Amino acid sequence: METGLIAIGAGLAVGLGAIATGIAQARIGSAGIGAIVEKPELLGRVILLIALPETLVILGFAVAAMVIMLLPS
Amino acid sequence: MLVPMAKVEIIGHRDRLDDTLELLHRLRTMQLLDVTSTPGVRLPPLTVDEKQLRELEELRYLRARLDAILRMVPMPEPGHQSEIDRPVRSRSTDLRDLRADLEELGPTLEQLTQRLDDLRAEQQALPRYVATLRRLLPLVPELTQLGGYETAALLIESRHSGVLGDLNAEMTSAAGNLFDIITAQVDPDTIGAILVFPRQTADKVYALLGRVQVTRVRLPERFEGIPFRQALASMERRIDAVPAEVHQVQRAINDLVEPRRGWWATRSFIDARLNQLEAVRSIGTTRHVFVAVGWVPEPDLDALRSALEADVGPQVVMDQITVESDEEPPVLLRNPSPARPFELFVRLLSLPSYGTLDPTRLMFVFLPLFFGMMLGDIAYGLIVLALSLWAGRRFGARSPAMHDLARVLVYGSIWSVIWGAIYGEFLGSLGHQVFGLTPIWINREEAVQPLLLFALAVGAIHMTLGLVLGIWAAVRSKKRSELIERTGKLATLVGLFLLAGMASGQLPAGVLTPAVATVVLGLVGLMYVQGPLGLLLGPLEMISTVGNVLSYLRLAAIGLASVYLARVANELGAAGPIWVGVIVASLVHALNLALGTFSPTIQALRLHYVEFFATFYESGGRAFRPFGTPTVTPSHTPSV
Questions:
Q1: 3-state secondary structure of B584
Q2: DSSP code of residue B619
Q3: In the 3-class helix/strand/coil scheme, how is B106-132 assigned residue by residue?
Q4: 3-state SS record for B312-326
Q5: Which is it for the CA torsion B614, B616, B620, B624, positive or negative?
Q6: Are B296 and B304 in contact (CB under 8 A)?
Q7: How far apart are CA B207 and CA B218, in angstroms?
Q8: Which residue of B87, B134, B142, B171 shows the fewest CB atoms closer than 10 Å?
Q9: Which residues in chain B have Cβ-Cβ distances shorter than 8 Å to A62?
Q10: In the predicted model, what is the mean pLDDT of chain B?
Q11: Are A36 and A42 in contact, with CB atoms under 8 Å apart?
Q12: Which residues pair with B182 in a beta bridge?
């Protein structure tokens, strides 16, 4: 039972982080493409901005990894 | 590295201005500054005299004419490309000859291309007429041979068949009973009609046809007025004859343009001369002397000085002048050739500002390393290596960006093979199953925890390196607040590493006090530098620095995703009959490879741009644009 809950917790940590990243990247991405159309030299900075929210899912992954390490092996 | 720039002043006799400009244009080593807006130089700009004005006009005219024709002229063979890149005066044709040649060739070429367009239009249109006529032909009476009568072929949509009744009534009022309409269904949607009427009523009839909803079949001019049957026959003959004519005209055009490949070089010579004449405006002058001011990369100073002496003579001298404090020299990156492709990624973000660090060489070391850590598979690495070598050779010559990208992927794939050996992966676990490949260090699939810790360690090293560089840069540029901030971040990180080491039992309990002290000191530094809001922002800065290190977990995470996908491929492959298995496994491996090449590139870039660069990078440099940088040339369309 406890093992199952830990596993669900780990899944939630990554999954919710991924959803949040997705929402943020969707907005930044569409705005970014608009900006690149006007000024192609912004490509590098737009890639940077699109990549920023990925920290959310990575932090989720870090939490999930820590939670899973709690699992009785 | 960023090339140090020298500000120079070239002073010479006005007679030598043309030669000087030509030399500067050829060497491409000096960015000219406008003397009117350069501090420290107070001279009126040189005005273009009447002779030069005429030359400018003539050159602009010739360039426009050339551009119109060059679209049809094939580019020179690749071996002669350099003639376009580096125009030389001695090889240029006499411009008067060029004008005469252009004026002679222009109208002929125009006629020929017009003819070609007409022929192509005919090639498209005739088959449509033939198809329509064939449908109408059974209706055509031999009446047309009667003099004084005209025929008109009409097409009417079946759902508008009521129009025919109206037409009949209108025709009666226009031509009495001296007309006839013969109709038949030519296809399910269309009714064909042939209208025969006296020639003297033609105007009225055509006006009438314009009003009602019918489509009159108008034949091309040359087929008008002859009976339909003959028209059809001659159209068919024409369709057979057109391709030969097209070919003939094309050959005539080719014969004209082929010997004129040299015009590409002439055009770049004209461009160069135009640039030189236009640059005159940024040159300062007195009655006898001209003064050109600009930036020259310091390592190129001697070469420029000796070239000026050798090619222009002693009437021109060059001096280095002092850079005013509010001036920012342009930025030129110059790196050893293995690292040069990575300049692409530095430029992609924004050039570093003058006098700061150029991260190109650091990217050369870390970017492929990170890529390899994430992809980490011998087979994938070899495939990417082969593909990028091929892409570099295939597209590299045409697109410098493609060339650089391919080179970066070559380095990345080599690291990927190395890490593949370290993880013992060949198409995931297939290497282990088939030929007993064993990892040199760890099997990623099983030893997740060491892998995560390793990724964090790499992050810690990378960030520490960045912060040390940042501190050095802050010391060098005497920026106190940046120095305190970066030292604070570094101290906090070191303190936290010590605490983590102690918590995991790797370090003795005695480090507790120094570790806490370091964290507190670092935190105080971070708070201090943020000003009044420091109490709130300092800890936030600390958290974000820790977050930056955690961000390197993606080095492990992306790799794990790739490992698991490879495993899925292998297991799917083993599930069914062998041939289905091979196909399915290949498809999933191909998908994994595509994801596994794209994603690590983006992630490795991001780790540099967001985490690493934040520790030391200062963007905002203006690119060095030396006088003589080639302008865009018209593109050759090889359709002719």
A1: helix
A2: B
A3: HHHHHHHHHHHHHHHHHHHHHHHHHHH
A4: HCCCEEEEEECCCCC
A5: negative
A6: yes
A7: 14
A8: B142
A9: 550, 553
A10: 85
A11: yes
A12: B194
Smallest Cα distance from B349 to chain A, Å: 4
Q: Which two tokens stand for residue B66?
A: 């050339």
Considering the entire predicted model, what is its pTM? Answer: 0.74
Residues A58/A61/A65/A67 CA torsion (nearest 10 deg): 120
Tell me the residue type at B223.
F
| Residue B280 C-alpha, separation from nearest chain A C-alpha, in angstroms | 30
Look up residue B273 and give its two tokens.
Answer: 């001369």
Q: Which residues pair with B289 in a beta bridge?
A: B13
Hey, is the C-beta of B454 within 8 angstroms of any chain A C-beta? no
Residue pair B611/B463 in contact (Cβ under 8 Å)? The answer is yes
SS3 of residue B365 by DSSP: helix
Determine the residue among B550, B558, B607 to mutate to test chain A binding: the one whose Cβ has the most chain A Cβ atoms within 10 Å: B550
Residue B92: band (very low, low, confident or very high) from pLDDT cuts 50, 70, 90: very low
Q: Which residue has the higher pLDDT, B11 or B228?
A: B11
Per-residue pLDDT tens over the stretch B555-607: 999 888 888 888 888 888 888 888 888 998 999 999 999 988 888 998 999 99
**Residue of chain B minimizing CA distance to A14:** B557
Interstrand relation of B190-198 and B215-216 (parallel, antiparallel or unpaired): unpaired
CB contact under 8 A, A51 and B602: yes
Q: Would you call A46 helix, strand, or coil by DSSP?
A: helix
Inter-chain touch A52–B547, beta carbons under 8 Å: no
Q: Which of residues 26-45 of A touch B (CB under 8 A)?
A: 43-45
Q: List alpha helices for B477-529, DSSP H.
A: 480-503, 512-529
- Burial letters B131-148, b for 16+ CB under 10 A, else e: ebbebbbebbeeebeeee
Residue B573: φ, ψ to 5°: -65, -35
In B247-361, beta strands by DSSP E? 284-285, 289-297, 316-321
For residue A33, CA distances in Å to A38, A46, A49, B457 come to 9, 8, 11, 35
Determine how many CB atoms are found less than 10 A away from the CB of residue B301: 16
The C-alpha atoms of residue B279 and residue B413 are separated, in whole angstroms, by 46
Interatomic CA distance for residues B145 and B133, integer angstroms: 18
Q: Which amino acid is at B136?
A: L
Residues of B in contact with A54 (CB under 8 A): 554, 603, 606
> Which among A48, A55, A58 has the least Cβ separation from residue B557?
A58
Closest CA to A36 of A54, A53, A49, A20: A49
- Please list every residue in chain B whose beta carbon sits closer than 8 Å to the beta carbon of residue A52: 610
B160 pLDDT tier (thresholds 50, 70, 90)? confident
The answer to whether B19 and B315 have CB atoms below 8 angstroms apart is no
Structure tokens at B421: 């050996």
For residue B14, the tally of other CB atoms under 10 A from its CB is 15
How many other CB atoms are there within 10 angstroms of residue B226's CB atom? 14
Do the chains contact at B610 and A51, CB–CB below 8 Å? yes
Kindly give, in sequence order, each residue whose CB lies less than 8 Å from that of residue B229, ignoring residues fewer than 6 positions away: B137, B140
**Using CA atoms, how far apart are residues B563 and B374, in angstroms rounded to an integer?**
10
pLDDT for the residue numbered B640: 37
* Residues whose CB falls within 8 Å of the CB of residue B540, separated by 6 or more in sequence, listed in order: none
pLDDT band at B638 (very low <50, low <70, confident <90, very high): very low
Whether B609 has a pLDDT exceeding 60, the answer reads yes
Query: Counting beta carbons within 10 angstroms of the beta carbon of residue B427, is it exposed (0 to 12), middle (13 to 18) or buried (19 or more)?
Result: buried
Please report which helix (H) or strand (E) contains residue B195, including its range: strand B190-198
Question: How close A62 comes to chain B (CA, Å)?
Answer: 7
